[in-house]
Amino acid sequence: MNAGNAENTGPGTGPGRRYACDGLAAAVLDDRGTVVGWTGTAEDLTGFRAEEICGRPVQELVADLPDDLRGATEMPESGRVRLWHQCGVTIDVTFRTTKVEGSAEVLVVVAPTRHVSDHEQGAALLRALSAQNRITIALHDTDLTTVQTNATPDPLDGRPVQPGTRLCDVLCTEDAESLEAVLRQVLETGVPVVGRNQQVSWRHDPVRRQTLSLSAFRLEDMRGRPTGVAALYIDSADDRARRHLDLARKVAEEVGKSLDVVRTAQDLADVLVPAFGDLAAVDLAHSVFDGEEPSKRLGGGNMGNAALAPATGAWPAGITRGGPVPPFPDHPLLRSFRHGEPVVFGLDDFVAMVGDPQVVEYLVPKDAHSVMVAPLHARGLTLGAISTWRCGRSDPFTEDEADLMTQIASRGALAIDNARRYTREHRAAVALQQLLLPPATTDTPAAETASAYLPAGGGAEISGDWYDAIALPSLRLALVAGDVVGHGMPASTTVGRLRAAIQTLADLELEPDELLTRIAELVQRLAAEAPLGDQDSVGATCLYAAYDPVTQRCAMASAGHPPPVLMRPDGTTEVVAISPAPPLAIGGLPYETTTIDIEPGSVLALYTDGLVEQHDHDTDQGLRRLTDALAASCRPDRALDETVRAVLADLAAPAPRDDATLLLVRTRAVPAENTAHWEIPADPAAVSKAREWTTRQLTAWGLEDLLFTTELIVSELVTNAIRYGRPPMDLRLIRHNVLACEVTDSSSTQPRLRRAHNTDEGGRGLFLVAQLGGRWGCRHSQNRKTIWSEQIIECPR
User: Distance from first CA to last CA of the chain, Å, rounded?
Assistant: First the structure.
């Protein structure tokens, strides 16, 4: 007999060899421990033939005999040793012994230890599974007859599931056939089934339905031939409770993400199907869609559908997305609904309540057998209702499901009411914002304008964007675009205050840089007046421009605002290069005026950053998109308001996260023949000359009815310029729908209107100008000031 030290560490020759015998091996020993019998399985296990072993002491087969077996006079009942294999390695085995009755011989049964361990673990697992009262284990043979099971007597029937029975002896025929089809497929293909949910009815109690989770796998013999199917049937009562918890959690996670009423209702319906029912509808009071509170008594007739799930389901003709909900007759169950409790109708109950078979066919989905209706009740208001239908072989609704629906409806109602309240506040903020804005279109001698305000959507609050077009003296036009920091009503309020301040300062005809400086001081005061902690949220960006149709020049300055885009009559577009400056809330840094020449027929685009800054591209990309859209949409023969709509259609996101405004200005020019200009010498005699020039020019224009008043105005303005101003000085007349008279000198002295006393020799000039003209004023530019007066031309030519 060969000896060696290698230990068997796995199947194979040496480490990794697989031995021929994986089953039980047996040998017979006499009373002295000599082998007298040797089976074929023992030969397969050790590699030794019977003629090599019989007659030899068994100790020669044992390697490293354990200490507890050394010197033993009798064979132990069981133990674990290592046996030599014929190839020289050792095999770890577990043995059991028993005396042969009527003889001194001992039968020794040996198996590889690894197989014994697997068997013990498998037996322990089987005992543990068998002890679970919600897990039924059944072994079926190839005919699907029950061979062995741990099933206990049914508490409702008392009959045990006996070996030799079939599923049809326990379950209703249709359910038994369905389960046997699954088991037969496992038997034929060998592919296991895991966690397949199956609803069944018991043969002795067909009304009671139970959901089972089936797992099955094929049983095979040593040669791999099918011998049957092992099936685990798990009662899904706990699983149903888990699904209810999962559904409640999903409602909390998925419903309420949107602040749109209809979207929230659709999310609620989508969560319910198919987890809770086959079809679901959410109906809301008509007023809820508009953000208003519903009426005290809510029922059919004043409600409309907000959501259906699935939208492509087999809905009857009477239930349509967005359609009205018909009124229902008073019914005891509906009274429970009005008290906030869900109601459940079987098909017969529903038919009896409606009373008209045609109406039932019009309202009841195909194959529906029950419906649960739950009110959407939040903050003392009944907003609408959820209707969930079950069709076909689905279980009827149960009491615990009614409790679950109460929780779901409560969460859904709060989400819908939040969306309703947001809709109301959003509409109020939008309405206020739009009331604060000027008319969408204007038509002045300087330009025609068209504009649009696009409020934020998708749950975002109003951000406070605005624009303005302000008519100035001498046919000039001021243009404004701004964006206030913050959201909601506070932002809209700030827009109103800034717009009023800018209009007031624009009437003073300040240069753009000086006007923004004054507005920045106002914003800083507003920030100082804000509640503690809100000062940093007060601010704005602003672009202010003033266009003169006589000189065809536009002066502009920016306070942290995006630059305008200019499209010239030849179709070329450019972003106007303006000097960057800080927003209005940041003081201490100067603003700078940029002046450009603009040809008549050009289009100047002012906008806010919501139009060019979107999540899918940066500002530079947005600016390129804007210039491209203007080039494609802006044509001389196209109305300016149509161009605004076309540009917004190209650029605006479906649910923008920020407000956006767009102001398009198509410039005009005052014809040269409608202006007259003279230089005024620093000589008191120039006053009479100025009157003569004025008389000739008004006569040429056909404005003889204004000769007297205009001569007086020119006399007073020229006299003041000669007396208090410095040369060079000039006089300019502009004719359009008004007659403007301007006298400019190089002095920065500000004229002041006062009432002269009877003994005063002067001080009546500006008073006369104010009385004779429609309005008058003074504006300053670099080292120059202009005093102007306007008179309305009744019948302009």
Answer: 135
